[in-house]
Design goal:
It is a single chain. By secondary structure, this protein is mainly alpha-helical. 79% of the residues lie in helices and 0% in strands.
């Protein structure tokens, strides 16, 4: 293995840890709820707290990687992530685990864009980068499915705390190896002291307030003064951020990066696709456990076909993009994903895994494998090295904030519909709630397809 692929291997493990911790707790939620005495309404915050700070600080983390150095930023983020994982495993209250999950997400926000920018600067544009990003997108999306399997096994045999303890030895090993093989990288643009902290505060506050209002809107009432007020606050903060970036000498996000149609289109397309996928995963795992009564290990095993099909598809599509371009994959892939999610809208109260769940789990990764690699390639192609961290932070932000919003929206829809149908019985009402949530996921994917059709420019074939 040459040095470039050795670097990729250990950087990919770091990214895998980040993605894994977005989903590994899904299967453990029932045990966490019982162990730490969570209420039903607050349980989703074990997931959302991580996604919230992760997505909220990704732009800051990506820019920090460009200014302070990718190596330094990645190792700092990994050290925090590893230490906080230990503390999460030792949590003794619901408040403690939610707060620590938020800090873990903050650490991940420095890890993920740094890791992807290292890949972008290690592999020049062309077939080798396409191949690397094919593996990368497999990790970024397939890791969620692997997390369900690993989380189920650890939860059933060792207890939910080992979902976090396992990060400690792996983190120490990866930090040690990366410290040895990663080259030094100094800042390439401006003095690190000129990092746009006010801009970072504005965009982070805007994103976090938006996700919070979506998470709590069903409880407060969508037309309540509290909901509308917080939504307006989020928009005001976003406008303030845009004004700040257009006026400051060293912006957190140079707005000129959005002159690229592919960068803009890829980021706009990524958010609703990941929203549908992440929320869909959460709902399917709950359906399998609460309706079909699978134990944690069996729940994890039920998702096993997903990463296998996704890995094969992603790597093959990465090769084909060089020959055929982005466009056809960004049209066909999301349509397949939407069909898979539409299958779940008919899940019955007395479900059968092989007839009702497995067909969707076989079709969905095929469509996602055709979708994610072209999106990441479109979002990062043509970006200079001194903005690699920024481009990485942008696409990761679109992905993670889409996931956080998707989880919040689908959870709110499911809860509202379930409450409105409570007279039909708890189990029936719950399943109807899931069905409506899956329908919303389909709409999100269709919306993403329209965006891709309009905005993504066809990649020219090599002459």
């Amino acid at each position: 293995m040459n040095k470039k692929w050795k670097i990729f291997t250990f950087v990919a493990i770091a990214q895998f840890m980040v993605v894994l911790d977005s989903s590994i707790t899904n299967v453990a939620l029932p045990e966490i709820k019982q162990s730490l005495h969570f209420s039903t309404n607050t349980l989703q915050w074990v997931i959302t707290a991580y996604a919230l700070t992760f997505g909220g600080f990704l732009l800051f983390g990506g820019r920090a990687a460009d200014l302070f150095g990718r190596r330094k930023t990645l190792l700092l983020g990994m050290s925090g992530f590893t230490l906080i994982s230990l503390f999460i495993g030792l949590s003794q209250s619901s408040f403690m685990i939610i707060a620590l999950r938020a800090l873990q997400g903050l650490s991940a926000a420095f890890m993920s864009p740094s890791a992807l920018s290292i890949v972008l600067t290690t592999f020049p544009e062309g077939n080798e980068r396409n191949r690397a990003l094919g593996f990368w997108t497999t990790i970024a999306t397939g890791g969620a499915a692997v997390g369900l399997l690993l989380g189920g096994t650890l939860t059933q045999y060792l207890g939910w705390r080992w979902n976090f303890f396992i990060n400690v030895p792996i983190g120490i090993f990866v930090i040690t190896m990366l410290s040895r093989i990663l080259p030094q990288h100094e800042q390439e643009e401006v003095n690190p002291s000129q990092l746009d902290l006010p801009g970072a505060a504005l965009v982070t506050a805007s994103i976090i307030s938006l996700v919070y209002v979506v998470s709590e809107g069903a409880i407060w009432g969508w037309l309540s003064l509290q909901t509308i007020g917080l939504f307006i606050l989020s928009l005001v903060l976003l406008v303030g951020f845009i004004i700040r970036e257009s006026l400051t000498k060293n912006p957190l996000i140079p707005l000129s990066i959005f002159k690229s149609r592919n960068v803009t289109g890829a980021n706009l397309m990524m958010a609703p696709i990941f929203a549908g996928m992440f929320g869909n995963f959460f709902m399917i795992s709950l359906y399998i456990q609460t309706v079909m009564h699978f134990d944690p290990v069996l729940t994890g095993l039920s998702f096993l076909p997903f990463p296998i099909i996704l890995g094969i598809t992603s790597t093959q599509v990465a090769k084909l993009v060089s020959k055929y371009g982005y466009k056809r994959f960004l049209l066909i892939g999301p349509i397949i994903v939407a069909l898979a999610m539409a299958w779940f809208t008919r899940l019955p109260v007395q479900g059968n895994y092989f007839l009702d769940v497995l067909p969707g789990l076989l079709l969905m990764p095929f469509g996602l494998g055709m979708t994610f690699t072209p999106i990441v390639l479109a979002a990062t192609s043509g970006v200079p090295g001194n903005r690699a961290g920024l481009a990485s932070g942008l696409i990761n932000t679109s992905q993670q904030m889409g996931g956080a919003l998707g989880l919040s929206i689908l959870s709110s829809v499911a809860a509202t519909v379930t409450a409105n149908n409570s007279s039909l019985g708890k189990l029936t009402a719950t399943v109807i709630g899931y069905q409506h949530a899956f329908s919303v996921a389909v709409i999100l994917i269709i919306f993403a397809t329209v965006l891709g059709t309009i905005l993504i420019v066809e990649k020219k074939r090599p002459s």
